[in-house]
Structures are given as C-alpha cells and as structure tokens.
Amino acid sequence: MENDKHDDKLALQVEQYFHNHYEGLHRYAFTILKDNDNAKDAVQAVFLKLWEKRDTLDEEQSVKSYLYTAVYHYCLNIKRHDKVKARYESENDSAVYDTGNKLISKEINQQIMDHIAALSPQCQLIFTKSRFDGMKYADIAVEMGLSIKTVEAQMGKALKILRAKLFDIMISIIILFFI
C-alpha cells in the first residue's frame, strides 16, 4: 500500500515535470534540430527515459538541468545520425546493388534509404548505429542511455518494418533478373 503511494507520488512528479518543462524543452530541441517533429520526438524520448528512471529520481538534483542536458545529447545523436546518413548516401550514390543498370540500382538504394528514414528517430538512430556504424547493442544502449532490451526491441521493430517494406523491392529485383 505504501509502495503504491510512492509510485503515485513519482508518477505525479514526472507528470508535473512534463507540464512545467515540455514547451521550453521543445523550443530548445527545435533550435538545435530545426525540425518540429524531430524536436517533439526528442523531448518525448527524454521524458520516456525520465519515466523509466522515476524510481531513482534525486529531488536534490536539478531535474530541469537533467532534462535539458538529456534533450541536448539526444538532439546531438540525431544530428550525428543525419551526418552519417548523408555521408552514407553520398558514398553510395553509384549503387548498393549491381543489377547491371545503375539507374535502377540507384533508385532501389534511394527507396531503401527512404524506408530507413521513415522509421521513428530513435528506431532509425539505433538501426544505423547497428547496421551502418557496426556498433553492438550494448554499446548503443550505453551511448544513448537506454537498456539493452530497449535497443533490441527497437532493432526488432526496425527489421520487421523494413522487411515488410522492402519485400516489394526484392520482388522487383527478382523480376528484373528474369526479364
């Protein structure tokens, strides 16, 4: 019973932090990212992390400071991911798949990159860190301040979505080979 009261108190604290700081954090994230949706995602991801860590909140430590620092680092990760993605796209302009037709290969590559870009920012960041940067799940979890299970779940989500989206592309490639 006492534990439930403690959980309720923590939930109310996090909710109060959300109401007090969301707008300011969103504006701060927007100034860094210059994208409203990514700024919203960044703030929501930080509040989700705060919610997951609500049992370890230290009331003497500045939660506001933690929130702004966490948003800053999350935004930097998004910007770093965008740079990696841009570099990857520019390095692979010629083709990922050599089908004998560079134009088709370039188009297929662009479709794949578009599907990766359509993932949620956190899912996209985890996917590119794993697949393009070759990072291990544990390293990604430490860098992003997430649990390994969260990283695994996000990778599973990314792979499931990409398999479904890329199935049509694979069929197109197979048809091209047999025509």
End-to-end distance: 70 Å
By CATH, the topology of the largest domain is: Arc Repressor Mutant, subunit A
CATH superfamily of the largest domain: Winged helix-like DNA-binding domain superfamily/Winged helix DNA-binding domain
Radius of gyration: 20 Å
The mean pLDDT is 80
Number of helices: 7
General shape? elongated
- Report the sheet-strand fraction: under 5%
Number of domains: 2
**Approximately how much helix is present in the residues?**
over 70%
Q: Which structural class should the secondary elements be placed in?
A: mainly alpha
Total number of β-strand segments? 0
Give the CATH architecture of the largest domain. Answer: Orthogonal Bundle
Compressed to H and E, one letter per element, the order equals HHHHHHH
Report on the biggest sheet. none
So what's the CATH class of the largest domain? Mainly Alpha
- Ranges where pLDDT stays below 50 over 5 or more residues in a row are 94-99
Strand-helix topology:
Blueprint: H1 2-33, H2 36-52, H3 63-91, H4 102-117, H5 121-131, H6 137-144, H7 148-178
Helix pairs in contact: 1-2, 1-3, 2-3, 3-5, 4-7, 5-7, 6-7
Provide a brief overview of the structure.
By secondary structure, the chain is mostly helical.
Question: How would you describe this structure to a colleague?
Answer:
The protein folds into two domains: 1-74, Rna Polymerase Sigma Factor, Chain: A (Orthogonal Bundle), CATH 1.10.1740; 92-179, Winged helix-like DNA-binding domain superfamily/Winged helix DNA-binding domain (Arc Repressor Mutant, subunit A, Orthogonal Bundle), CATH 1.10.10.10. Helices cover 80% and strands 0% of the residues. The protein has helices at residues 2-33, 36-52, 63-91, 102-117, 121-131, 137-144, 148-178. The longest helix has 32 residues, at 2-33.
